[in-house]
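Good morning C.,

I know you're traveling, so I'll keep this short. The sequence:
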Amino acid sequence: MPGANAEVEVLIVGGGPVGLTGRALLERWGVRTLLVEKHGELSPFPRSRLVNVRSMEIYRQLGLTATITARAFAPEYGRVRFRDTLHDPDFATEAMVGIHAPVPESPVTGVVTSQDRLEPTLLAAADAPVRFGVELVGLTEAADGAEGAEVLLVDHRSGVESRVRARYVLAADGANSTVRQQSGIGTTGPGAVGRVTTVVFDADLDHWRARQPAGVYFTSDGYFLPLYPEGGWAWIVPTPEDVAGADWSGLVSHALGTGAAVQVDVLRVQHWVVNAFVAERFGRGPVLLAGDAAHAIPPAGGMGMNLGVADVHNLCWKLAGALRGWAAPGVLETYETERQPVAHLTLHQAVVNTELMFGVQKARREQLRTGAATPAQFELPWSDQYFAQLGLVLGVTYDSDAVLTDGGTPAEPSDTGTDYVPSTRPGHRMPHLWLTHDRSTLDAFGEWFTLLTPDPARWAQRTTTPWPLRIEPLPQEHTDRCGLRPHGALLIRPDGHIAARWPDRPPADFALHHALAALTGSAPPGKHP
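The tokens, ready to paste straight into the viewer:
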């Protein structure tokens, strides 16, 4: 374990799902990391609930989907229910597409799980050192012209201070990020938009929950979350003014409804702030922000954690390239170029989600006041595909120097609605296609660039590069869907996004070399064997 004056390639600050995922991804690249987390252990609170389809694709690459799924709820819990109290019947309900059942656009299905169940799986996914109870308290760029950062850490158990030199600092330390503040990076957006309280409790509701499964139950008095398949609940509600005098057991019992008739045993209470912002910069010098440090997303729709997981998936291959020399350090500038627009889109969608959720509850309260309608007559303010959001989850499109567009045509903007239309144009996530009966195109990607082609022999003859690259045969039945003719190819980045496309054959013998050089910011090789 690094001690005083230690050196690491990447210091990861923050031991939540984003920091732990980044640690696992960087270890696969052989990058030396140290993760520090100011709290003494992994979070005991459920917090994030949803691991969406795209995050599960990333975890499939890390070999974690089976473990995550085994500890999660069954697919039928991928549903939202609205009711007056928890014990009352639904007046509205909707399934979450990609969670409630498989979708043909992906080889995986998302899950409803609790963050405190996900984090131990992510922690076990890598062997790199982790120091709990250690906080970053100082950060400066390295002196004497050296690259990287000098970081001052304090161990809260012993009080001992130590210094670490890191080539890069990956800040995943939350919405109140110390690293972001010490780097002088501001934020844009509403900021704090509300204060809420999470009450974790036990109650004998399992038999009732099994008949009416859901991941979230919205009521007129906050919303309820089943925590684990074997039991446990959380109630989330706006924080009352008199926190000290709150009767949490009584408040939960009232929200459950008079027909529940169960004893409530409150285990933990946590107060927190709902933030809504995007950082003005995603990096400065050796510092790079990810997750809530880069963007705080309101919880409606369950997009915040998943956005952060996609951040580090985008970032880690670029860090590896810059550290190993097959990419120029400037490639890291494409991280902000690619991910910041996605953060703004996601924040907008989360605000829309919040307004629609509150709109349902407000309309229902008006119904109850006037007696104008029964629950069966309630009309939802969205289409039946609203909760799909596959356009935002799978339709993210990048337009940066790390993408070579077709014939100079700008990349298409990311989808923002529910519909997802697969595309093999550069910048898009490579669509899921079955290469064999149990192997997806997405399974061909890893710690390397991938050349997908129906003519691997021809391309192999001209493929000697200093970049990590594998050639993957593309079955003939997929060529038309990929926009390729018999000798064409797609160049896929390690994060699964298409970097370049040659519909038929490369325009020159060294086109692949020049493409890899261009998208990694490296100087094109002058001569080739």
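Safe travels,
E.
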